Predict the 3D structure of the following.
Amino acid sequence: MRERPGSGPKRLLRDERGVSVTVGYVLTLAIGAILLSGVVIGIGGVLDAQTDRAVRGDLSVLGQTAAANVESADRLARAAETDRSSAIDTMNASVSVAVDLPDRAAGVPYRIAVDDDAVTVRTDRLEATMEIPHAARTNVTPTSVRGGPIRIEYERGDAGPGNLTVVER
Amino acid sequence: MADVSLGPPDRDRLFGGDGAREADRAQLLLVAGLVMAVSLVTLVVLLNATIYSENVATRGIESADGEALEVRATAVGGAGELIGATNRAGLANHSEANERVESGVEDLDAEISRSYAERGGVTHLNLSSVENGSRVTGELGAVDPNASLLAGNVTRTRGFVIDVDPDSLNETDPAGAVDDAFHVDLNDSTGGSRQVYVYDGTDGNVTVAVGENGSEPTALCETPPDGRSRVAVDLTGERLGDRPCPGIWPRSLVAPDDDYTVTLVNASAAGGEVAATARPASGDSVSTDLAATAAVYEATIELRYRTAELRFETAVRVAPGEPDA
């Protein structure tokens, strides 16, 4: 190995950097660690707030989507019942609306509950709940399904007008 | 121009000597810069993922029912026009009228299927059943001036329109209308009778009044003739001229349990034309003193519409011009 130019006892004797290099590195690492910790703590807080906001935003949009489709199915069910022939052997009024909802809201699983008045979407992990009122006039069977693709169905029964029912797809 | 090129590495810059402190500072800056860069990249990646998921979540909501309702409206409107055109053609018998409606619905099915296939929907239209009746027409001046049977023992009436000549109407008021005005008598076999009077009100307007069991009627609506030779009194559509006139047709006769009889009374007190389509309580034709042709009163159409997301099936009863329930 080639000797470093200017090295040797002579250089060592006149070198005043020994202490300052060590302190310099320690300081560098310390500052780096503090900076990194600060950034991680800062990001963690921001990220938690953002995730919470995103989950609530997602739940709101998913609830609105589900409510809008419940109202669509209601309009179709009423249209199917309007001027419906009461003759025997005629086709029953039947409606089915498929809704492609994601399995997770901002990465968190959720559930959809539907009743006569509102669509409620909630996540258990973050305890976020959004209730979106709907204006469906057809009776809705109270149901709770896992978040994800759903289908809203209406079938006229032999006894008379049926209910809107939400099922998993 | 200034010289900005780097000189050849000299011994002091690389290995210390008098410039040794500059070399140490470079390492410090590199480490600090690396730490900052990694931290910022991490921050950006994590925040971006959150913003992306929020962006995806807030995209628009599309309503699924528009096209299905459009298909239904198109099918009902088309079938209604088809029935109207078939009845106006004055066909010789009911089987001919039924065949024409059946073939018309097949054509309508082909047209609608083609139109919605282009948009990704599958439609199917099928004529399920037909109810026969009669289309009755006549000139008010040509019927019995005292009382003339328009339709006897009917269960439903639609498209009942009297185009009256405003100049020919008797001038009277509600009190005198029972004896002097032209009116339509709707006699329910179990629920009494109702009358619809049409006369020239004292102010020259075409006036419609309704009464029960021959009692003094109540004026319901009026419209100025405005120089028109005909003003339409649409009894089942509940309109006078171009204005709505709710209440002309009795609620009890919208979907009655029993049959009723429609009679034109005091026809000499008005001029114009009358037309109506009625469904008899039994048989295919109604009894009438006016001219009647074979007609299709109503048709039941089975309608199916499917897309990838939606299924809509129903059997619609089509009877254009029936009073609203």
Observations:
- Residues 20-57 of chain B form the longest helix (38 residues).
- Chain B has a mean pLDDT of 86.
- Chain B touches chain A through 48 residues (CB under 8 Å).
- The two ends of chain B are 94 Å apart (CA to CA).
